[in-house]
Every structure is written in structure tokens, then in C-alpha cells.
Cytochrome c oxidase subunit 2A
Amino acid sequence: MASTKVTHKGKKQEQEAPLKGTWISVTVVGLVIVATYIVLYGLYMARI
């Protein structure tokens, strides 16, 4: 078999858009976790 050298010159992709979406997703998940914690803590304190 003949070996061939394959080179890939990819285009430089912008990183702004994916990072923006990632931060939005992380923020939403964080807010849901904090809201859940506050609700559960409130319910626990109401029980006492």
C-alpha cells in the first residue's frame, strides 16, 4: 500500500458565538439550581 500524506488546513473559526451560547446555558442552569435551593430551603424553614 502506498502511504499518502494528508494535510488539513482548516479555516480559523470564530469562538465568540459558541462561547456566548455556552455562557447563556451555564447561567440558566446556575439560576435553576439556585432557585431550587432557595425554594427547598424556604420549605425546610417553614417546616421548623
